[in-house]
Amino acid sequence: MAALGTNALLGLPVGTTLDRHLLQRQNAFKGATGGLSQLLRDIALAGKIVNREVNRAGLIDITGAAGSGNIQGEQQQKLDVVANIRFIRALRNGGEVCAITSEEDDEMVQTGNTSGKYVVAIDPLDGSSNIDVNVSIGTIFSIYRRVSPVGTLPTTADFLQGGRQQIAAGYILYGSSTILVYTTGQGVNAFTYDNSLGEFILSQTQINTPDDGGIFSCNEGYFNDYPPHIKTYIETCKSRRLMGRYIGSLVADFHRNLIKGGIYLYPPTSAAPKGKLRLLYECFPIALIVEQAGGMATNGEEAILDIVPRELHQRSVFYAGSPRMIKSVMP
Ligand code: AHG
Ligand code: MN
Ligand code: MN
Q: Helix, strand or coil for residue 278?
């Protein structure tokens, strides 16, 4: 992992605010209009608001089941709904985005900004089963430049371009501290939220994930469902005395492994034969981050980013992490 210090590409030191970082990036990119920077600022703003909601969740009775389900038939938590509203509102008000695909909405959401050049796919609150028990949760996002003409109504084709077409992606982890990690395809930078300043501050520059790792992360409750080669791999991890770590929030499990080195596995199960995680707003953004950090992400057959989805809420088998470990789960 890159040592704390000066950003090799941009000359920005640890301690720089996200706003300044975005501005410098924008100035370094010839022809940039500032739209993407503004979009990322809008996401950061909504992230600060959700961070506030997450921090006081137990106090104002917004945790617990809302009594409604989302399109995947899962119970929706109140904070999922709150986070969805916050992000959609921030992106709508920001004006850069013409449509949003959210885990919490069956259909694509039109923002009304037909002049917006971008679309965003988002998991507003990831790891929602952990909300009520004070365990880390997150937000995951992915950004595309629309393919439909600017000025017209956006279409689902804007979202179904394939993982390689993402122009930016990232996540916010509401953990022991809140951290925003993002990439625009020029490496991965992490910004820790300073509550007292209300700012995201550059804390890790040009993150590189270790080539090999000592952690495997999967839900072992489904072990009997896993394909034989995955069972064998997990047995090998155990015989080598690797650490088993599984929080049940993709963002938190992935972030730990990104920094320390490890593998995250969500193989096919009898309940989710095509995998559980959603391509657009879970697998693609995490895959872009991990590749940018020198790691790999695969569905076991091809690189996640090479998949071109057919549906907005399409699921995938997902393995991501340190490259040497990922190579071991390829058949
Ligand atoms: P979400 O809360 O957005 O629906 O996502 C939950 C996902 C992911 O965060 C986590 O890694 C995985 O589901 C956990 O699934 P299991 O409980 O099946 O292990
Ligand atoms: Mn999720
Ligand atoms: Mn979610």
A: strand
Pick from 82, 250, 265 the residue to mutate for probing ligand 1's pocket: most ligand atoms within 8 Å of its CB. 250
**What CATH number does the domain located at 33-176 have?**
3.30.540.10
Res. 12 pLDDT band, cuts 50 70 90 = confident
Distance (Å, whole) CA 155 – CA 305: 21
Contact indicator for 265, 329 with CB cutoff of 8 Å: yes
Ligand 3 centroid vs 35 CA: distance in angstroms?
26
pLDDT tens, residue by residue, 106-155 = 999 999 999 999 999 999 999 989 988 999 999 999 999 999 999 999 99
pLDDT in tens, 215-226: 999 999 999 999
How far is the centre of ligand 3, averaged over its atoms, from the C-alpha of 126 (Å)? Answer: 4
Cβ pair 313, 205 in contact under 8 A: no
Whether 2 has a pLDDT exceeding 60, the answer reads no
Ligand 1 binding pocket mutation candidate from 266, 313, 317 (most atoms within 8 A of CB): 266
Q: Which CATH class is domain 215-329?
A: alpha beta
Q: Start-end ranges of CATH 3.40.190.80 in the chain?
A: 215-329
> What is the C-alpha separation between 16 and 236, in angstroms, rounded?
43
> For the chain, what percent of residues have pLDDT higher than 90?
84
Range(s) of the chain covered by CATH 3.30.540.10: 33-176
Which residues are near ligand 1 (CB < 6 Å)?
74, 103, 123, 126-128, 219, 248-250, 276
Asked whether the whole model's pTM tops 0.85, one would answer yes
Instruction: Report the number of secondary-structure helices (H) and strands (E) in the chain.
Output: 7, 17
